[in-house]
From TrEMBL:
Keyword DNA damage: no
A GO MF label: gluconate transmembrane transporter activity
Cell compartment(s), UniProt: Cell membrane
InterPro entries, sorted: Glcn_transporter
NCBIfam families according to UniProt: gntP
Stated name of the protein: Gluconate transporter
Domain of life where this protein originates: Bacteria
Pfam families from the UniProt entry: GntP_permease
Source organism per UniProt: Flavobacterium rivuli WB 3.3-2 = DSM 21788
Length: 439
């Protein structure tokens, strides 16, 4: 029990550094990891070794995936492919099913784009439809933003899910497949169904007017846009299916196994996208490389946070704390997936950051996986679901939603915060149902 108190104290220190003292999460993770090393009895001269090993092992396996994912997403946005995708989907659904069109748009755009980029990119789409059809902005916008949030929390190659896949040594393809299965009912409940209850929420003033700056003549075709944006998902699906049906040991199986490696798969998708929505659309190599450089700048701090979270996990493992914690949790009458969700949700409410909540939880849970009889992919999704729980005033997304939609704090809690809570709980329910079906 004393060891558990030490671990909880380290997590409390992490929360205190980030929330009270406003220390950057990267630095906070490093300080908490060093404090944990001393508290758990690691020799002082070995602590820095554990920290460096943890950072290196974490980034070594995830760096390529996240960086290339950011590059593809940035190119999808800059080329206008995201605009083409949204326009195409809205033309299919029309006014009668406008919410379902926005939901599909948000989900498809959300797969290649990081959350903040996707949020800013979809706001003009939402407001254009609000002005066109004279419908309440929150009612129109929630389905699309729910879909973006689910993609951010559930689906690789987004930073947190991709890092969790690596930490738990889960299959990227299986996690994506399970994630989509769980995501669909979650965004339907939190989007079109829940938004019916917030029709009466109105802005306290006017809404920002956006203009579409890219003329149709320079936009990629509909097929090209969908193909380039969703190629990583398509490649993951195809290689995963082929590995299931091909005989073990055949030459084609070896080729598929090589191509199914996430870093190789993402590199292929990047090369293809560089041509299809870059060079083919008359962008110079210099311009494309500038886009890729900007993409890396956008995620630099995320990479540092992910790397430093690996330091905390390594300290817990090197100190032997993970084994004792595992023994303690083994006697608790609570399902491991629910336990992981509760830890992640609690940290999310305290810190506000979904990424930090997911990675901190992984640092605690990963060393215990050998004592848990659960599918690693479901553990990734359970933690991802918890990391979306109840966004409030310590989450930048909360303020982005409030300010863009120009609504009161009370209405932001009633719409945005409750939507995120529904997504989180629905995700846990989906994980538990899947666990029951496959176990």
């Amino acid at each position: 029990m004393s060891l558990l108190i030490v671990i909880l104290s380290v997590v409390a220190l992490l929360i205190l550094l980030i929330t009270k003292f406003k220390i950057n999460p990267f630095i906070s993770f490093l300080l908490a990891s060093i404090a944990a090393g001393f508290a758990l009895g690691i020799p002082a001269e070995k602590i820095s070794e554990s920290v460096q090993t943890g950072i290196g092992s974490m980034l070594g396996s995830i760096l390529v995936i996240i960086c290339i994912g950011a590059m593809i997403g940035k190119l999808v946005a800059e080329s206008g492919a995201a605009q083409v995708i949204s326009d195409s989907i809205m033309n299919v659904f029309g006014r009668k099913y406008i919410q379902w069109g926005l939901l599909c748009t948000g989900f498809i755009i959300g797969i290649p784009l990081f959350y903040n980029v996707g949020f800013v990119l979809t706001i003009p789409i939402i407001f254009a439809l609000v002005y066109k059809y004279k419908l309440p902005a929150v009612y129109i916008g929630l389905p699309m933003l729910a879909a973006l949030s689910v993609a951010h929390g559930f689906l690789p190659p987004h930073p947190s899910p991709a890092a969790l896949v690596t930490i738990f040594q889960a299959s990227m393809g299986k996690t994506l497949f399970y994630g989509i299965i769980i995501a669909i009912p979650a965004i339907i409940i939190a989007g079109p169904l829940f938004s019916q209850t917030v029709k009466n929420i109105k802005p306290v003033g006017g809404l920002t007017t956006f203009e579409r700056v890219m003329p149709l003549s320079v936009l990629p075709s509909t097929f090209n846009s969908f193909f380039s944006a969703l190629l990583p998902v398509f490649l993951l699906a195809v290689t995963s299916i082929l590995l299931l049906v091909l005989p073990e040991g055949s030459p084609l199986t070896k080729v598929c196994r090589f191509l199914s490696e996430p870093s190789i798969l993402m590199l292929i998708a990047l090369i293809v996208a560089t041509y299809t929505i870059g060079i083919r659309m008359e962008k110079s190599i210099k311009e494309i490389m500038r886009i890729y450089e900007d993409a890396i700048k956008d995620i630099a701090i995320i990479l540092l946070i992910i790397g430093s979270s690996g330091a905390l996990k390594q300290v817990l493992m090197d100190s032997g704390a993970s084994e004792e914690i595992g023994t303690y949790f083994a006697h608790l009458q609570i399902h491991p997936l629910v336990l992981a969700w509760l830890i992640s949700a609690s940290i999310r409410v305290c810190l506000g950051s979904a990424t930090v909540a997911g990675l901190t939880t992984a640092g605690i849970i990963a060393p215990l996986m050998s004592t848990f009889n659960v599918d690693p992919s479901l553990m990734v999704l359970a933690i991802g679901s918890g990391s979306l729980m109840f966004s409030h005033v310590n989450d930048p997304g909360f303020w982005m939603f409030k300010e863009y939609f120009n609504i009161s704090l009370k209405d932001t809690f009633r719409s945005w915060s409750l939507m995120e809570t529904i997504v989180s709980v629905a995700g846990l329910v989906g994980v538990m149902i899947l666990n029951y079906c496959i176990s």
